[in-house]
Amino acid sequence: MRTTTGWRATGPTTLRRTPLERRDLRADDIAVRVDYCGVCHSDLHALRDHDRHAEAPLVPGHEFTGVVTETGPAVTAFSAGDRVAVGNIVDSCGVCAMCEAGQENFCHSFPTLTYGGTDRRDGSATLGGYSREYVVRDAFAYPLPAGLDPAAAAPLLCAGVTVWEPLRSLGVGPGSRVAVAGLGGLGHLAVKMAVALGATTTVVSRTRDKYEDARRLGAHDLIASTDAGQMAAARDTFDVVVDTVSAPHDLAPYLKLVAMDGTLSLLGYLGPVTVEAMDLLVGRKKLSSAGSAGRPATAGMLRFCADHGITADVEVLPSAQVETALDRLRRNDVRYRFVLDMSDLD
Ligand code: NAP
Ligand code: ZN
Prior knowledge:
This protein is of the alpha/beta class. The chain folds into two domains: 2-158 and 312-345, Medium-chain alcohol dehydrogenases, catalytic domain (Quinone Oxidoreductase, Chain A, domain 1, Alpha-Beta Complex); 160-289, Rossmann fold. It is built from eleven helices and 17 strands. Strands 3, 4, 5, 8, 9, 16 and 17 form a seven-stranded mixed beta sheet that branches. The chain is globular.
């Protein structure tokens, strides 16, 4: 075993700096010095839901960038010193139809999650990127393209891929009309990507407060979801509505925004939902969802972002301020992603 240092949950809002074990490198592993790790709203959900009496510690963090420090003997794609990025899945079976299709995120035997998962070879609990070192199978690390700032690129690996795959699979391109509901970590990247894909893009936010930001991100307009008049005026006008709202909410007002034969892609709230069939029937609308991305799409997303200069708008904090970051994220006080600088763990 190798040891590193990281932030382990001690309660729903508290974490403690602690030594952590990482596995010795397998033939196809690389060791990554984690430099920057994004703080995803999913980390809040994980902390809230974590059983404090569980045997496995919870170390969140599933979007990070860093530098390769060591490689296993079978690794050919990376060398020590390479800049890499790791997202929210770190392994899959590799042989099922989904893996064969490059959709490792939908692996029939469930992809191995970066944290809160179970390593498929030794059964150990996976511990996330709120730490100084991560050991990962080479196939699930991605070269970080030159030109992408490593702190601002970290959120691309969860927030970015999560919105990228549905935008691509739903055919968003020049002429598409896209609405992005919830302007947070996922939402602001969805806006940047949809705009870069050529779509006319509108933000749907609870208030008008983020109007200037929405415009700066390239959106054409912002609709306040709490303004019935604005919502009614936008009825049936979007080919794709990307819903990144983190809390449970009524889908009906968002389905009303979807144009004939268009799609509401539910990405943010992943619990049970209730839908009136009539809200789909009128306009032959589709309800869809997505999560993470396969390896080819993740690599493609990074290339696209490098080509278009897309990274997250980040506020970088020393990792010692992780509780502040989580608390402010909970209160929606971030524009638009916290990233932890892990160098204070040395
Ligand atoms: P975030 O930065 O907190 O953004 C969420 C946004 O949702 C907020 O900025 C806010 O936008 C809106 N919102 C929050 N509470 C709301 C409420 N009560 N009613 C209406 N709108 C509300 O979170 P994030 O990191 O982007 O993550 C968003 C969600 O996606 C989380 O639930 C997360 O767990 C989930 N997620 C899913 C996947 C996946 O694989 N599908 C991957 C990553 C994250 P406005 O201020 O503009 O209204
Ligand atoms: Zn995430």
